[in-house]
Amino acid sequence: MKLLGYWRSSAAYRVRIALNIKGVDVEHQSIHLVKAGGEQHQADYAALNPQELVPTLIEGDDELALSQSLAIIEYLDEVYPEPPLLPQDVKDKAIVRAMALAIACEIHPLNNLRVLQYLSGPAGLDEAAKSAWYHHWIHSGFSALETQLATYAGRYCFGDTVTLADLCLIPQVYNAKRFNVALSAYPHIERIYDNCLQLDAFIQASPEQQADAS
Ligand SMILES: N[C@@H](CCC(=O)N[C@@H](CS)C(=O)NCC(=O)O)C(=O)O
After folding, report:
1. Domain endpoint, select from 65, 82, 99
2. So what's the pLDDT on residue 72?
């Protein structure tokens, strides 16, 4: 099994955490998102992932190429069921998925590299306006999530067991800190971040621990 990713990619970071929690050893291949205009746009990578985004998981003898981090994680969760990343109860499972999707669909796509590049390129925004865009969508998404966490969180996003929601939250917080977003208005998010970063699976998956970190 091979994971094509990038050290600073929050979507690849989610998958790295899942692999570590499951104890699955994979070969890592770096797809540099910036160098030479972005290796994700090169033809051989685009043939594997037509959206030209990381991560891609290459799996099995037939070299199946899987895209979309949440699809990859749910695939891993089914192939390697222990420890589970989703609760058993169907309602609890839906709540965890809703929190994960709130990050992966409502926050992350708005501050993705290609969006930021478009803002400073064709849209003509200066650095201050681009930063305001980034901060706006993080605050919008995190304040909604903080409200949900007030109901459901324990040590982690959903009670005291790590779930798919934590795998999405921690990379997004890493990203927000990188862009200097103040997080003091989100005590649940800050607490969960600190708790997750005490776990080896999260520590080993963190961007700075990756071989391609620069
Ligand atoms: N929904 C996708 C998002 C993937 C994604 O946006 N990846 C980013 C890195 S976190 C990327 O490859 N960006 C390259 C670009 O924007 O050109 C997933 O969850 O896998």
Report:
1. 82
2. 98
- Using alpha carbons only, give the angle 178, 29, 119 rounded to the nearest 5 degrees: 40
User: End of a domain among 58, 82, 106?
Assistant: 82
Distance 54 CA to ligand 1 centre (A): 5
CA of 195 to the centre of ligand 1 (A): 26
Residues in contact with ligand 1 by the CB-under-6-Å rule are 9-11, 33, 38, 40, 53-55, 68-70, 104, 112-114
Provide the domain limits for residue 177.
Answer: 90-201
Q: What are the tens digits of pLDDT across the range 53-93?
A: 999 999 987 789 999 999 999 999 999 999 999 999 999 99
What is the total count of domains within the chain?
Answer: 2
Question: Token pair of 189, please?
Answer: 């998010």
| Strand ordering across the sheet containing 2-5 | 27-30, 2-5, 56-59, 64-67
Please say if the pLDDT value at position 27 is more than 90. Answer: yes
Residue 124's pLDDT band (cuts 50, 70, 90)? very high
Q: What are 58's strand-pairing partners?
A: 2, 65
pLDDT average, residue stretch 110-117:
96
